[in-house]
Each structure stands twice: as structure tokens, then as C-alpha cells.
From TrEMBL:
Gene3D superfamilies, sorted: alpha/beta hydrolase (3.40.50.1820)
Keyword hit for S-adenosyl-L-methionine: no
Superkingdom field: Bacteria
Taxon lineage: Bacteria, Bacillati, Actinomycetota, Actinomycetes, Pseudonocardiales
Stretches assigned to the AB hydrolase-1 domain: 46-280
Name the UniProt record assigns to this protein: Alpha/beta hydrolase
Amino acid sequence: MDVDYLAHYPAALHGGPTPTGEWWRWGPHDLRLHRLPAPEAPVVAVVLHGAGGHGAMLLPYGRLAEGRAEVIAPDLPGYGDTRVGGPVTWSDWIACVADLVRAQDRPVVLLGASLGGMLAYEVAATVGASGDHRVRHVVATCLADPSDRRVRRAAARWPLLGEHGPALLGATRVADPLRVPVRWLTRMTAMSADPALTDLVCRDPRGGGGRVSLRFLRTWMTSRPTVAPEDFTVCPVTLTHPAADTWTPPALSIRFLERIAAPTELVMLENAGHLPVEQPGLDQLRAALHRGWDGLS
């Protein structure tokens, strides 16, 4: 873990078991998996980053598990230290994490941050569609459905990109292989209420300071939920939305949450920005996570 991130994280995200790392082959890609081992824990928590993060950046949030779950935070293709062996699409992210979930020998709780929240929902829907009940709970800080133009407008650096991006990128697929800075496309400056932490994210070549292919952006922008929320019954879903988030308006995620057929819970993280590091929001996130896996076996 980059010590610069830890320097900006509160004490609640420090300490605990010594992190380990390993490589996991998926298709043409070698994924880096960051882990907080807890071999006796009854649950595995898979932590999913979004467009400005990576596994090592979010692994400290796994310390909120306090040993109740083993934590795995992958560097998804295109981010972190993962070695990419071919083109990457939004569907690849879903399929990759779904296979990672299927490889676990314990019940799984998915924790998705930012774009990772919708990824967690999609993975749960994909795994559950085959009758596999391994995913027992989804906890997301955001549920950004890209089929909603209001979500695309909020996520994009320029609202017009969010509004017309699907049509524009669909008409220029020849540009798919181009990799452009993440910060050109998204409002990375709204990552945190802490300017120093935001600056660090924007400079990190493994995350917010890296590049993303137009193919990945196009396939995300033109996607629709694998399972409509009205038909989603795989597991409970908890939305833990930062209340002081200036990037993704809570109302958009709440609108999606209210359509989900499975049991849902809304927890607003008081005083917390998009990347929640503030109190009391962090304690509220910890409590929601513990409710998400307590009693699972």
C-alpha cells in the first residue's frame, strides 16, 4: 500500500493484519489481488474500486471488517499493477469479478466504491443468474446506472460528454484503442473533500492519474443493467452514500435503490465526501458493513 494514501486516511483505516498480494490469471490478464487474510472468518469481502482507484488504494477500508471477513481488493484490468493482455470492456470487469467470486469457498459480500458500486450490483446479478447463491450482500457507496443520462452527466467532466457520449463514441469505434487520461473524462477533482488527498489520487498513475481506453468508456456508457432492479432478488443491497458527495448526487443512487426488488437499506454517511474518510460517516460505514455479513456462514 502506498504510504502516501495512509498518511491521508484516518486511524480507523490503519493497523490490522499485514496485507499480502498475489497474482490471479483471468483470460489474457494477470490481476493483482490485495488481501487482508482472515482464514478463520466465515465471509470473504471483495472490495471493488471505480474509475479513479485501485485495489491497494481501497484495501485499508477492509480494516473496517475487524477480522470478521477476509478481504480481497483486486486491481481491475487497466488499473493498479494488473498486467493487461488485451482490450478491456465494462463487461470484462463484470465477468472477471464474477469469476473471482465463484473462486471463493465462503459466502461473499461485495463492497463497491464509486463506479465499483454498480459493478458490485452487476456481479451479484451475474453470479445469481446461474443459481449460485454465493453473494449474500451488496454494499455500495454509489449506484450509478449509466443508462440514466443524469448519471452520465454527473459522472463526466463535461455534462455534454455524459449527454452525448454514447452516440459520439458509438459512431467513432475506430478510436476504441485510444487511451486518454482519466481526469480528462471524469470530475476527478471531486474525489475527496480533502484537497491533498484529491491531488494524490489525480497524480497516481495506477488510478486517477492513469489512462483509460475509449473502448472501456463506450461500453460503460452504452450498457444497461444485466438484471433490471425490479427483477433483482439475489441478495440484500445497502446503499452507503456519502452525504457530502459533490461528484455523484445521492438522489440518483437512491432512485435506483428504490427500484430494487430485494431488501434494501439506505445509510447516509454524514459529513463524508465521495471517498469517505470523515467521521461520523466512517463509523456509519463500518456499522453497515458489519450488518452486511454478521450471521453469514
